[in-house]
TrEMBL record:
GO terms for cellular component: Ski complex. InterPro entries: Beta-barrel_MTR4, DEAD/DEAH_box_helicase_dom, Helicase_ATP-bd, Helicase_C-like, RNA-DNA_Helicase, SKI2-like, Ski2/MTR4_C, Ski2_N. It comes from Homarus americanus (American lobster). PROSITE patterns: HELICASE_ATP_BIND_1 (PS51192), HELICASE_CTER (PS51194). This is Helicase SKI2W-like. Residues 83-115, 497-517 are annotated as: Disordered. Keywords: ATP-binding, Cytoplasm, Helicase, Hydrolase, Nucleotide-binding, RNA-binding. Residues 527-726 form the Helicase C-terminal domain. It catalyses: ATP + H2O = ADP + phosphate + H(+). One of its GO terms (biological process) is nuclear-transcribed mRNA catabolic process, 3'-5' exonucleolytic nonsense-mediated decay. The keyword Kinase does not apply.
Length: 1212
């Protein structure tokens, strides 16, 4: 063996030694192939090729071909060439539907640099040919002859003409001078070629109209309902042609039509022979009527109670999109409802997608479920997906009343293109026609309103006064299934409650408390559950309008068991299947363990403090009938149909963020509507718990049978909306404001204002002219008199409250009044109302010949003339008298004369003689005494009568009041010093001038009402524009700057986040600090424990507050009412420590020990924080800050883990 080894050892090696190879590789790197000269940079000589500069990209074609069809048969008869108006149009320069598509990555969400599509109902922009032609007319005086850095350039002088005698037709000029102006001049005769072609095209179009068809062809078209061919500017897929043709019919009529739901639709199957969607049950009448209009591409507004079947209408619209191979968008107010609808529609329609802030599932689907904010963003960002939309379905439209988010619905409805049809689903509201008329008016389309107040399962409302034990069955019917209020039930409930009070009188500090003790409440719930269980009224939804009370009520009933062994097994396996998705310690979170044990007993909790995955578990178990008693807050009543057999109201009072108040009818109806399962229950049971006191009868009646809350505008101006609109020159913010629901009255009156304006202008043109040397300042007199009248009313309305004036104004005081046709008349004060001192009763003398029916214009003329009077009117005939009730503003002066009078007797006698039976009776002596005194003063012309001075004689000493009185005196002097008063024909001339000036004022008023300045939000808009200019978001000409474009990327708090980004606040901060500080943008809970902050976090918070203070101060300086402190305090740093540790990697169960904020709210905050990271990341990309972009990506990665970002059960 040794010999063999020695022999082999001397043989040459088959392969090189591995050891040698490694040594060579490590010790001689210069011999590596990468250092070979062939890989080094080499120089390639280039040959100049100037001709390549001549290559230019081809412009898009200016014309395109359209198919010509026979209008009767639809057969293609030929082609026609039409001009392409949108040649070169892209998402960056055009709002047209025919613009070129954008890049694929912007198809769904769009881009903040895109233009939106042209909103439906907006007037199409008209091309001003004169201004366009003027732009192309070159002015040689303004040419630049050479570049500033060059000494020579191009000569634009007109070439000198050579003398005729030297011109030779066969010889060329010695010098050829080319003039650019000559080159740019175009022979007009050449352009006529295109005019002739255009005329031919127009003539071809006219061939396809119905006007040129004979009678036989016209009747054939009408019989077959063949639509006319599209216009040349409508060769895009237009899914609402039918409704657009109907727009012409309803142009000058109401924009909303109410459909009678009581009228049966007997021929439904013949009208819809091939329905897009079939149902295994007979449709209700309102559903059939809605479907008929959907088939006609009409917009519908369906208002019905909860569980009435509104979803059928939405499903049919979605089915139509599948049939037409278009798209539908289903919008909901909250993300959780979007997830639930995704699951429901996914079962019925396979092609369904979901778009929310953090989830994007199948965005190419025909039906997309999304929140309304997502659709708003897509509209502003010009998403190409909007092109394909045939239907947009707005669920829970009554959410437009939400003060914080209601404006989003209005913005979306305004911005929707005309090619989109609208389906509105809402709970019953009293002003459906008004709301539908507004939508129809802004979209120029008729809206069909289908409203039904009929419930599929009628409700019975009860009062429960039991406290457990023997009283557990004390349930009293208050409203029966027919909606009749039963007073006996209320009286019996009050009697039962009073009977208990006799034996259980609360003493000491317990008196007057709002809730029972824990033991009493537990006994009450146990007795009530037993009572309802024996009557087979489970499952129950107990609406408890407080998260804390939801938890405490459920905890008190842990001893109760409402499920069978089989149900317990189902619940256990379902919860295990769901929680297996969680990782590590998340499976053993205290809330998970608590909810698991609670649900196995058939009891559930549903409110915002519960983890999202646990809320979904509760909802699914409740839908399966495994949760028998559910304690829920108001949000459970919104959206998805999850009815119960019985609904209980733990209390009918709620805190709305400002104060405690009773539930309004719409809130009560929404929650009570969960009672009664269609097809299972004959009636639904609603119970109100009377724990301490029975609510007032009037409150219950209003809440149960009162009218629901009207839909009201919550439109408001946000910086985001302003900046998004200012990006687009063709649309203005004023256009948005004037189309808001709050301006519906102004919009409805526009035609009326136009007619009145035209009429006033015509009248003004017909008014006669006059020339008078004395009346040159008559217009100035009119202005002074008008100002004097206004000041007189203001002064006398306010001085009556001073003691000296009140002391002077005693019954019998002679005063001068200006009241309607009685201008500057003597009057005797009879009475000042004790309860309301603004009610005065006076007696005046009347001239029997004077007219008592003057027009408003005539009365104003008399007031203006009376302004120049110093002495009261002296009457020739004083045979009549009257008593007047007026206010202090009708006083013109207080005199020094007081007569003895019994005002009450005078008033009683005058009222008595107004009765027909006593009309001919003579005045009483007390009345005659006043009349005689007034007649004497009238005849003497006010002898020994003087006017009291309000300051010197009546003792008015208040500085502000004295100032106003001085202004009144000065105005009187200004009126009296006008030279026109000396004209002998003053009254005649002033009458003519008054009419003209009044018409001018009316024309100005009407023009103002029709202008943008009359909009309610116009002053605030101007203030916000000033804020944006001062902060540098827009230029002085309202052009959006780069800073403004960054703000357009933000979902909320756009100014604050933009300032932080551009001031480089995040530059030196680690990812965890940034995440913690940005949590202040999304955390909204007002009260929570104080976080334990590190020095870095404290420094960051000060920076945030400094930036917020600066913005608040600018807003205040520009006139906005929001206080600086309120603006700063809206950024809540209560979860800063929690988010900081979460971004550091701390487990969820540990971070929940750092705060008293509930788990569900914490998870929601962190989820929304990720959306803020995306906004900041997009902004960083826009400004070119890769460092910040990387930080945002790292921050998003740090927080997106474990239970916080567990996918929804509805999407799996």
């Amino acid at each position: 063996m040794d010999c063999l080894e020695r022999l082999l050892g001397k043989l040459p090696p088959v392969l090189p030694s591995l050891k040698d190879q490694i040594e060579e590789y490590l010790l001689t790197p210069e011999e590596l192939p990468i250092h070979d000269p062939i890989f080094s940079r080499r120089w390639f000589p280039r040959k100049p090729d100037p001709t390549r500069l001549y290559d230019i990209s081809l412009l898009p074609p200016s014309t395109c071909l359209e198919v010509e069809r026979d209008p009767a048969t639809g057969e293609i008869t030929g082609l026609r060439e039409v001009p392409n108006k949108d040649a070169g149009a892209t998402a960056k320069n055009s709002l047209s539907m025919r613009r070129a598509p954008g890049p694929p990555e912007e198809t769904v969400r769009g881009s903040s640099t895109n233009f939106p599509f042209w909103p439906g109902g907006f007037p199409e922009p008209v091309l001003d040919k004169e201004s366009v032609e003027a732009e192309f007319q070159l002015d040689s005086n303004n040419y630049l002859s050479h570049h500033p850095k060059l000494s020579r350039g191009m000569i634009f002088e007109v070439p000198k003409q050579l003398p005729e005698k030297e011109e030779k037709p066969t010889e060329k000029a010695p010098e050829l001078v080319v003039s650019i102006t000559d080159m740019l001049q175009v022979d007009e005769s050449v352009l006529k070629i295109f005019d002739e072609k255009e005329e031919k095209v127009v003539k071809k179009e006219l061939i396809l109209t119905f006007e040129n068809l004979n009678e036989e062809d016209t009747s054939l078209v009408k019989n077959f309902n063949i639509e006319p061919p599209p216009k040349k500017d409508e060769f895009v897929l237009n899914i609402s042609d039918a409704s657009r043709s109907s727009t012409i019919v309803v142009k000058n009529t109401e924009w909303a039509e109410n459909i009678d739901v009581n009228e049966p639709v007997d021929d439904f199957n013949s009208q819809v022979p091939n329905p897009a969607c079939k149902y295994p049950f007979e449709l209700d009448t309102f559903q059939k009527q809605a479907i008929l209009h959907l088939e006609k591409h009409d917009c519908v507004f369906v208002a019905a109670h909860t569980s009435a079947g509104k979803t059928v209408v939405a499903e049919y619209a979605i089915a139509l999109t599948l049939k037409h191979m278009t798209r539908a968008a289903y919008t909901s107010p909250i993300k959780a409802l979007s997830n639930q609808k995704y699951r429901d529609f996914k079962v019925k329609f396979d092609d369904v997608g979901l778009l929310t802030g953090d989830i994007q599932i199948n965005p190419k689907a025909s039906c997309l479920i999304m929140t309304t904010e997502i659709l708003q963003s897509m509209l502003y960002n010009g998403s190409d997906l909007i092109r394909d939309l045939e239907w947009v379905i707005f669920d829970e439209v009554h959410y437009i009343n939400n003060a914080e988010r209601g404006h989003v619905w209005e913005e979306v409805l305004i911005m929707l293109p005309s090619t989109v049809n609208i389906v509105l689903l809402s709970a019953t509201v009293p002003n459906t026609i008004e709301f539908a008329d507004w939508i129809g008016r802004i979209k120029k389309r008729k809206i069909y309103v289908i409203s039904t107040s009929k419930r599929p399962v009628p409700l019975e409302h009860f009062l429960y006064t039991g406290t457990g034990g023997k009283s557990k069955d004390e349930r009293f019917l208050l409203v029966d299934a027919n909606g009749r209020f039963i007073n006996k039930g209320y009286n019996d409930a009050v009697a039962a409650k009073n009977e208990k009070k006799k034996g259980h009188t609360l003493q000491g500090p317990k008196q007057g408390r709002q809730h029972m003790g824990e033991k009493q409440e537990k006994n009450m719930w146990i007795g009530l559950i037993d009572h309802l269980s024996k009557r087979d009224l489970l499952p129950i939804v107990a609406f408890t309008l407080s998260k804390k009370r939801c938890d405490s009520n459920a905890t008190q009933l842990m001893s109760q068991d409402l499920t069978t062994k089989r149900e317990k097994g189902e619940i256990f396996s379902f919860i295990k299947k769901c929680t297996d998705r969680l990782q590590g310690t998340d499976k053993e979170l205290p809330q998970v363990i608590y909810m698991r044990s609670l649900l196995q007993k058939g009891i559930g909790i549903h409110h915002s403090g519960i983890l999202p995955i646990l809320k979904e578990v509760v909802e699914m178990l409740f839908a399966k009938g495994l949760v028998k008693l559910l304690f829920a807050t108001e949000t459970f009543a919104m959206g998805v149909n999850m009815p119960a057999r019985c609904v209980i109201f733990d209390s009918i009072r709620k805190h709305d963020g400002k104060a405690f108040r009773d539930l309004v009818p719409s809130e009560y109806i929404q929650m009570a509507g969960r009672a009664g399962r269609r097809g299972l229950d004959s009636t639904g049971t609603v119970i109100i718990l009377c724990k301490n006191e029975v609510p007032e009868l009037s409150e219950l009646h209003h809440m149960m049978l009162g009218k629901p809350t009207k839909l009201e505008s919550q439109f408001k101006l946000t910086y985001s909306m302003i900046l998004n609109i200012l990006r687009v020159e063709s649309i203005s913010v004023e256009d948005m404001m004037k189309r808001s629901f709050s301006e519906v009255l102004k919009m409805a009156n526009e035609s009326k204002y136009e007619a009145e304006l035209k009429q006033a202008e015509e009248r003004l043109g017909k008014e006669p002219e006059f020339e008078c040397m004395m009346c040159k300042d008559i217009e100035k007199y009119y202005a002074c008199a008008k100002e004097y009248e206004r000041q007189r009313r203001y002064v006398y309305e306010n001085v009556l409250g001073f003691p000296g004036v009140m002391k002077t104004m005693t019954p019998g005081r002679i005063v001068i009044i200006c009241f309607n046709q009685y201008q500057f008349r003597l009057a005797c004060l009879l009475k000042i109302d004790v309860k309301d001192r603004n009610k005065l009763t006076v007696l005046i003398l009347k001239d029997g010949k004077e007219s008592s029916s003057l027009t408003k214009e005539q009365l104003r003329l008399k007031e203006a003339v009376a302004a120049s009077q110093v002495d009261f009117d002296i009457l020739e005939n004083t045979s009549e008298h009257a008593s007047l009730e007026m206010t202090p503003q009708h006083l013109a002066a207080i005199t020094n004369k007081v007569i003895k009078v019994n005002g009450e007797k005078v008033i009683d006698n005058i009222k008595k003689r107004q009765i027909p039976r006593f009309r001919d009776d003579p005045p009483s002596p007390s009345v005659m005494g006043v009349i005689n005194e007034l007649q004497r003063l009238n005849e003497s012309g006010g002898e020994n009568l003087s006017y009291l001075d309000l300051v010197n004689d009546c003792g008015v000493r208040d500085l502000a009041a004295v100032t106003e009185i001085d202004i009144l005196k000065n105005l009187k002097l200004r009126v009296m010093e006008q030279s026109c008063l000396e004209c002998t024909q003053f009254r005649e001339h002033f009458g003519i001038t008054f009419v003209k000036l009044s018409l001018q004022e009316e024309i100005g008023r009407l023009k103002f009402l029709m202008s943008e300045e009359a909009l309610q939000l116009h002053p605030e808009y101007q203030m916000r524009i000033q804020v944006l200019k001062k902060l540098g978001y827009i230029e002085n000409n309202n052009t959006v700057t780069l800073k403004g474009r960054v703000a357009c990327e933000m979902g909320n708090h756009e100014l604050m986040v933009t300032e932080l980004v551009l001031e480089n606040v995040f530059a030196d901060s680690p990812v965890e600090i940034i995440a913690a500080l940005l949590s202040s943008m999304v955390f909204q809970q007002k009260h929570c424990s104080d976080p334990n902050l590190t020095p870095e976090l404290q420094k960051g918070i000060k920076q945030f507050q400094s930036v917020a203070s600066h913005i608040g101060e600018v807003q205040k300086a520009c006139g906005l009412p929001e206080a600086v402190g309120d603006f700063v305090e809206q950024f809540n740093f209560g979860l800063t420590e929690v988010v900081y540790e979460w971004a550091h990697g701390m487990p969820f169960n540990k971070i929940m020990e750092l705060t008293d904020v509930q788990e569900g709210i914490t998870v929601k905050c962190i989820q929304r924080l990720d959306e803020t990271f995306k906004d900041v990341k997009n902004a960083a990309h826009l400004i070119g800050d890769p460092n910040l972009r990387e930080k945002m990506e790292a921050a998003s990665t740090a927080i997106k883990r474990d239970i916080v970002f567990t996918p929804s059960l509805y999407t799996q």
